[in-house]
Amino acid sequence: MLSTFPDPHSTMGVASMAFVLRENLRSGVKSILPVLVLILYTILGALIFQWIEGDQETAEIDVLREMRERAIEKTAFELNVLKSKSPIEAYNYTVKVLKKYNEKVGIVEADMDNLKWSLPGAIFFCITVYTTIGYGNIYPVTTTGRVVTIIYAFIGIPITVICLYSLGQLLARVCRLIWKAFLRTTRVVSKDLSKKVEELGEKTNSDAGSDQQKDENDLSSFPVSILLLITVVWVIFSSLLFCYIEDDWNYGTALYFALISFTTIGFGDVLPSNYSYMILIGIVVILGLSIVSTTLSIIQEQIEGLAEGMKGDIDKEYLNALAEAKDEGEVAEAKASTALEGPPENLDVEAHIATMDPRSLDAVVSRMPLRSRILYNIMPASSKKALQKQSEDLVANLVEEELLKLKLAAGPSAPASPSSPAPPAGPAYETSLQ
């Protein structure tokens, strides 16, 4: 029976220990690598935005400071004429001058006709809470309001997730109907479209109902290009609507607000000021969130589906890569090296396979087509682990057969008689290679 733990005093044991340490280090680096990439990405973004926006902010502060200094000087100069006025005239004149000063420094008087906490404004606030956008233009200031906001968010966010999923399912059904009608009308004949027609067509056998229902519920069967087109159209339409509602917005500002809202970034730098349209804006934002989230989830599902499909083809891909390795002589070279050295007493099979055998998973993946290599790199960690296990099982079966042959070839042979000559080394070597 082969030992799982290598002998540290043997050459193969040292190599196996080095391989284990290298694999552990590689696994640790792979786990930390995304964090390091995110840190570098954050620093890079901070430097870029500081370079772009820093000078503009400094210029705005200088202009604002200069405007305030001029307003103070002008106000002080105008207040000096109060000495020649009566008390009532001086009071009225002072109020008038201070109002002008407030206007110059940007202090806006409260407007009772445009309250934030009106019913439309409160509805808009609720939408920003459970969609996690959080523009920041409407927020609670009382302790009770803050506590209720937290409780409301805990309840509303899961409901919103379910709602967005349901809207996404409805959107997918509508898009499928349009897609099927388009295919049947145009009679387009191509490989991809025929596949879609076959998937979306009606079944006539006894399992038609269940298969069709499964296909309708499987969003990954829908072409992403159609959803991307719908997303672009909805963003354009929403931007035009926002531009119509807000008189002081141009199309670029409206487009920026739409994209910031649909991606739930919600900086709060561009906000709607017409609170009478807040309900309409909230509905548009929710529909946009549903479309964008559905599109992103379908893209993720299709990537995972393609990656999972690779598991079904791993045997074929593995055998193809193995055949290619045999054609190039790598497998024979590995066998010859093992045969000359003889099977070690204490052998870590997995380390031995990975360090010496060109049939290891890394070697096989490197020989696969580009598409398969890309799918292998982007598949989730759980899928990679299952793929690794499947590959190791396949390799283990092949290697155990070879090790058995090597043991039989290197085993004690019958003692030669004095009259019979010793067998030549060449045939034994050839036997060990077989």
From TrEMBL:
Pfam families: Ion_trans_2 (PF07885)
Chief location category: membrane
GO molecular function list: outward rectifier potassium channel activity; potassium ion leak channel activity
Any GO BP annotation: potassium ion transmembrane transport
Recorded topology in the membrane: Multi-pass membrane protein
TM ranges: none
Keyword entries, A-Z: Ion channel, Ion transport, Membrane, Transmembrane, Transmembrane helix, Transport
Keyword Membrane in annotation: yes
Subcellular location, record wording: Membrane
A Gene Ontology term for the protein's cellular component: plasma membrane
Domain of life: Eukaryota
Assigned protein family: Belongs to the two pore domain potassium channel (TC 1.A.1.8) family.
Classification via PANTHER family: POTASSIUM CHANNEL, SUBFAMILY K, TWIK FAMILY OF POTASSIUM CHANNELS PROTEIN 18
Official protein name in the record: Twk-18
Organism: Pristionchus pacificus
